[in-house]
């Protein structure tokens, strides 16, 4: 097993990313893509303004609330099926549409929808999964922006004994592509000592029906 950890440093959007060429995948990481004050301001604004939902998923035949709150937002055709439920997007909040456009320009990659996850504290989490729903296409590019409390993010190869752990601090941007969803899984583990909220935004692209 190989566990690699990177700590954040003072890079910004002008700096080249930290790049991890993993077996069967690529991860790029900008520790300070947004500066600290802007990240904090955006966190507070989105926490207050958005219509946060605690979705329920079916587990062993019973509806169970997921351990975080979510918003699904994007272009009207971006209907998304996740853990057996169908999500119709909320219309764009202007600041988020602007961020999607900024990321599209920055990464030279279209984004037309975003899943927002709000973790009230370190008890809230997300289990092992891949963002490999068919709507996202064959090899999706997922751009993950984090605001608020720093949390650990784990990746593991599906078939080989490889793991990667990253600390995702406020304002950091993580980009997963080149096989990451096909060959790896990721999760946000519980961290019971974390008392503050974290908001994560994963920008995605869903092709319009032809
Ligand atoms: O909160 C995170 O960093 C992970 C979010 C995630 O994996 C997802 O939205 O699919
Ligand atoms: Fe994910």
TrEMBL record:
GO terms for molecular function: broad specificity oxidative DNA demethylase activity; cytosine C-5 DNA demethylase activity; ferrous iron binding. 2-oxoglutarate binds at residues 117, 119, 129, 186, 198, 202, 204. Keywords: Dioxygenase, DNA damage, DNA repair, Iron, Magnesium, Metal-binding, Oxidoreductase. InterPro entries: AlkB-like (IPR027450), AlkB-like_sf (IPR037151), ALKBH2 (IPR032852), Oxoglu/Fe-dep_dioxygenase_dom (IPR005123). GO terms for biological process: DNA alkylation repair. It comes from the Bacteria. Residues 110-207 form the Fe2OG dioxygenase domain. Its cofactor is Fe(2+). It holds the Pfam family 2OG-FeII_Oxy_2. Substrate binds at residues 60-62, 80-82. This is Alpha-ketoglutarate-dependent dioxygenase alkB homolog 2.
């Amino acid at each position: 097993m190989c566990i690699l950890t990177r700590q954040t440093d003072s890079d910004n959007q002008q700096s080249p990313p930290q790049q991890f060429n993993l077996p069967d995948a690529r991860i790029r990481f900008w520790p300070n893509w947004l500066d600290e004050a802007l990240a904090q301001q955006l966190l507070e604004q989105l926490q207050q303004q958005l219509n946060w939902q605690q979705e329920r998923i079916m587990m062993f035949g019973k509806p169970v609330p997921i351990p975080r709150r979510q918003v699904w937002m994007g272009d009207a055709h971006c209907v998304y099926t996740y853990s057996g439920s169908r999500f119709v997007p909320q219309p764009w909040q202007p600041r988020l549409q602007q961020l999607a456009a900024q990321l599209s320009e920055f990464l030279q990659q279209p984004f037309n929808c975003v899943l927002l996850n709000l973790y009230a504290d370190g008890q809230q989490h997300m289990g092992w999964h891949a963002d490999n729903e068919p709507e996202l296409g064959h090899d999706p590019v997922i751009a993950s922006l984090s605001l608020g409390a720093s949390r650990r993010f784990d990746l593991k190869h599906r078939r080989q004994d490889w793991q990667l752990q990253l600390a995702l601090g406020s304002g950091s941007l993580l980009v997963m592509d080149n096989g990451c969803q096909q060959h790896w899984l990721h999760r946000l583990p519980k961290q019971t000592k974390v008392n503050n909220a974290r908001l994560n935004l994963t920008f995605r692209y869903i092709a319009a029906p032809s």
